[in-house]
Design brief:
Elements lengths: L1 E9 L2 E8 L4 E6 L27 H5 L4 E6 L5 H5 L4 E4 L5 E6 L3 H10 L4 E5 L5 H18 L14
Antiparallel strand pairs: 1-2, 2-3, 4-6, 4-7, 5-6
Length: 160
Amino acid sequence: MVDPLRVFVLDGYGYLEAWCYSAGALRTFRLDRIAAVEVTPLDVAPHEVKLKDLSTGWFEALKDAPLVTLELEPSAVWVAEYYPTEAVTSLPGGGLIVSLHVTDPAWLRSLLLRLQGGARVLSPDVAGDSAAEAAREALDQYAVLLGTTAGAVSDAGQAS
């Protein structure tokens, strides 16, 4: 559930900038990725937020966000097309190394979990720690439910 604040077009794509109740913060959503919309009878609540200055494009608005570098397996190269990247390098075998600005660590954790081992954080070293911890916790829960040993976790902290 979101409170819409503005709609804009940048680099040929339409976006909705809104207060996101599940994140408890300002978020930007690409309009072509929104599957459904339902108008509620609730009024938009006032929010103390500062909208991004997009007059110079995405990268200027993201320039102060930490830069994270990921090694992507071929199954995860869609990330480079789906999200704004600072740099992309092709790897033998079809993988990529991508650098992107990350404004929300929870977003990165969600992305890494969604990629199911198809990405490895190259830098900064600790950027993937919360995703690795969440994966370990999920494996531990499966072990409890199934009465078995949890899945293997490598020395690099990547769940397999």
